[in-house]
Predict the 3D structure of the following.
Amino acid sequence: MTDKQPEDSTNRQAVPAWAARLNRMTRYAVEDFGGGPRPWKFAWVINFQKCGTFFFLGFLMLYYDNDSTSAWVYLAMQGSYGIIWFIKDMAFPDPSWQKRITIGGGINAFAGVLGWYWVFGWLLISGTSVPDYPLPDGAWYALCISLCMIGSVIMIAADAQKFFVLKHRRGLISDGMHRYIRHPNYLGEMLIYASFAMMVWHWLPVLVLAWVWGGLFAVNMMMKEASLSRYPEWEEYRRRSKWLVPGIF
């Protein structure tokens, strides 16, 4: 590929009307809501939640006097993931998170999505959720930890590839982590948060993830594919790759 890719605007993939409308509503809610000054970057709101997770979960363990194995495992999983995210953002920040947002937008982003991830840990550590796992506890912990680690590696590798490739040349990325699936970074995130929901084993995280994956992730992937469809090699890449799972979906 060369630095300047030829584009074919005649064959651009259309975004479903409902997805485009939901995308506009979401962007307004978390970027422009309330108007006024834009004192912070979107990344700062995200990093506040990510970095605060370890301390928040630790406080919950102290408050509820819960030093169970499940609480420690959950602290290690979601708390460490938050630190991993922050390191990633410092090393190769995503340009889409660098935009300035309104105060109302930041509050909406935290209250509408990010804050709900803290509820997962509260359900488990407070004893509101008393999981009855389908497997022995040790085997279930191992499964959840494995999903969290694999998801973290996939997300970091995909984001790093995108950051450093686009730093040197613009165009479609269709090799490496993107060779078989078109959205490996979303796959990584989904594995990570699925592991948290599996540890909590409660219906509420399932509802939250259904909203995030269907209302945000799926829409973002549709918008991304519509944008990438301007490249002539898009159709061939789309035919030989899948959304999230190689050879399946």
Remarks:
- The radius of gyration is 19 Å.
- Residues 15-240 form one domain.
- Strands lie at 40-41, 100-101.
- The chain has one domain: 15-240.
